[in-house]
Amino acid sequence: MELNEETALNPDPGRTESGMRVLVATAVPAERDAVLRGLHGSGKFDVLVTGVGPVAAAASTAKALAAAEYDLVVIAGIAGGFADRAEVGSLVVANEIVGADLGAETPEGFRSLDELGFGRTRIPVDPGLVTRITEALHRAGLPVITGPVLTVSTVTGTAATALELVSRVPGAVAEGMEGYGVALAARDRGVPVMEIRAVSNAVGPRDRASWRIEEALFRLEEAGKVLWEVFR
Q1: pLDDT tens digits, 9-18
Q2: Which residues contact 63 (CB under 8 A, 6 or more apart)?
Q3: Contact residues for 190 (Cβ-Cβ < 8 A; gap 6+)
Q4: Are 61 and 166 in contact (CB under 8 A)?
């Protein structure tokens, strides 16, 4: 939808304030459409298609935030879940958004931008917001887990890389390709950000036959309904 609608955001559950707006950032049209179905087409949220990857996501989000004032940015989409942490068909809510492959390879192993002193790769999400959304998803009967959600520029395709990522970021629950870019743009404007993803496949060896994209999109739609209930 066009970026010209208003929504309500208030830290007190069940209440709204007029004049406040929420931007939902999705990577591709299929994710946008699932979120919009969940939002009942109410026009109370602005839903943006950023394009795939952190660079496109950062640029598109920065442009949207420069054009209008928002009080919250929500990254929404499908993702790969790490084995034994986020099952296919579940939802993940990030308590931290991590640029997982920004850094340098060294003889001693990978070193992040943080370790190199060149920047921050971890963007925390407000704990109260995480709790509020997670509890609402639980009340709706949806399977949900919280933890760090990783942003990668290249989708993981081997078990070895998956193991390396979870060793780098203990507790990581899922990986996507846009979260860190969106979060950087939001942080630059001083806007709170959160990330919700539906798990369509396991992180690791690529097995397209096992991916459940339609199920994940349906979960994303259900998450959109919860967002609508919480922030309407």
Answers
A1: 333 333 334 4
A2: none
A3: none
A4: no
